[in-house]
Amino acid sequence: MYFKNLKKLHKFQKADTKQIDRASTRDPIKVSNFLADVNSKRADNWEQLSSTIHKQALKHFGSQRRKKKDWFSEDLLPLVEQKRAARLKFKEVPTRSNLVKLRKAQQNLQRDTRKRVNNYWFDLCEKVQVAADSGNLREMYDDKSSYWTS
């Protein structure tokens, strides 16, 4: 088929759209308050209805917090900004020297990121190993979810 050869496009979330905290939707009191507010509002078209539902859901359930990787720190931000500036410069003026600067910025960011991730996993493994050696199973399995989400 023709559609199999198309390049996959990534879909980005709009900056002003917040994700609704789905864990709060299990609370029956919050759900009943949400439904009462949505039913009291009148919408003439789909966009108004969608906007009303989203606003009321954010009001009653709250927004979901973004989880930051444990290995990412503020020290990486200057390198990220350097890479962004180099990419912007290269897109404005695509010369060989700007390409070299962009590659150098990418290499620096990747090298530093890999070091941080490696140190994070090393520290985490060491913590688990110490807990296992001391027989402290609670500490060993305490933060298990963070092992798989990083």
Report on this model:
By secondary structure, the protein is an all-alpha fold. It has 2 domains: 22-61, no CATH class; 74-149. Helices cover 63% and strands 0% of the residues. It contains 6 helices and no strands. It has helices spanning 28-40, 46-61, 77-92, 96-133, 137-142, 144-149. The longest helix has 38 residues, at 96-133. The radius of gyration is 24 Å and the shape is flat. It starts with 27 loop residues before the first helix and ends with a helix. The relative contact order is 0.08. The model is unreliable at 5-10 (pLDDT under 50).
Mean pLDDT: 81
Question: Runs with pLDDT <50, length 5+?
Answer: 5-10
The number of distinct helices, counting runs of at least 4 residues, comes to 6
* Residue share in helix: 55-70%
Largest sheet: none
Strand content: under 5%
Shape descriptor: flat
**Distance separating the two termini:** 37 Å
SSE-based structural type: mainly alpha
Number of domains: 2
Query: For the CA atoms, what is the radius of gyration?
Result: 24 Å
Element order: H for helix, E for strand: HHHHHH
The number of distinct β-strands equals: 0
